[in-house]
């Protein structure tokens, strides 16, 4: 988990996590100085190591739950474990990161007059009673469930962000990110795309939870990064849904993985987890109209790019060249 701060010609700081590292690549490529602040709980140094030695890049091992003093122009606040397996592992740490971590990053932004972008989540809609989800929908969230550390945590982070905006005149931006996949995802983070891809590559059965009829919408990471940067640079606060409206049941996703990796991959049904949202699909009209953004990469095109990366990391370069 990490907060990325960017200084323009100055800097910013994203993270060594999955999304953060792709964001850093884009920011560094356009010439920003970037400070990555990451406690490396779920982020991996390998994700940003290719920038080591670049004078415009700096990485600080720091937990945003503690205060920090820096000088930057923009703060992309991405710090928080985002996979249900990771965030349920230590729920108190998760909510602390969302609340105290966000408070610290907002305090920092206020002190230095930086623009602050919160990466919130589609989970603020809980198990939604409206479909697809529009930003004006207030959600259906269980405040005492096993996912609450994450979804209630992010809801509070949104509240804090708006209170700093109204109370301290801070420039803020809020993105609600829907399920995202791509290279550099943690292989064993327990999320459905990483699980299915790793399972198919390892010739293990694909584990479908429940009846597999629940839906998600999967966005390729480069589309998300483009959306985050447009949001940061634009004039609108949000919140904005950033996700790909293509909706798949988990059984349909399993079929795409079979088609991409191994048509003979078996499917094994497992008991579902508690409070699992039944449906999730973003309405992205607002992002289209106000940010001029929409995703470009369909699941069937993005998945092979992730598979190449997973193959390398699971089997090593040589084996992947041979397969
Ligand atoms: N903070 C920080 N870096 C800064 C400024 C503030 O980490 O450069 C933290 C600070 O420790 C506090 C939080 O951000 O816990 C909120 O700061 P703010 O100034 O808004 O509130 P206050 O410190 O007055 O409670
Ligand atoms: N899921 C699944 N098999 C797995 C992991 C997850 O069928 O191996 C299902 C899970 O029950 C949920 C969906 O996939 O309905 C998405 O889960 P994930 O943990 O990826 O993210 P979420 O959208 O729940 O945060």
Percentage of residues in DSSP E strands: 15-25%
| Helical percentage | 25-40%
Tally of individual helices: 10
Terminal Cα separation, in Å?
Answer: 33 Å
How is the biggest beta sheet arranged? 7 strands, mixed
Q: Could you give the count of β-strands?
A: 13
Morphology: globular
Mean of pLDDT:
92
**Molecules bound to protein:** uridine-5'-diphosphate
The main sheet orders its strands as 3-2-1-4-5-6-11
Which structural category fits the helices and strands?
alpha/beta
Radius of gyration: 19 Å
Sequence stretches where pLDDT stays below 50 over 5 or more residues: 7-14
What's the oligomerization state?
Answer: single chain
Q: How would you spell out the order of helices and strands?
A: EHEEEHHEHEEHEEEHEEHEHHH
Domain NAD(P)-binding: 16-304
Membrane topology: Single-pass type II membrane protein
Pathway: Nucleotide-sugar biosynthesis; UDP-alpha-D-xylose biosynthesis; UDP-alpha-D-xylose from UDP-alpha-D-glucuronate: step 1/1
GO molecular function: NAD+ binding; UDP-glucuronate decarboxylase activity
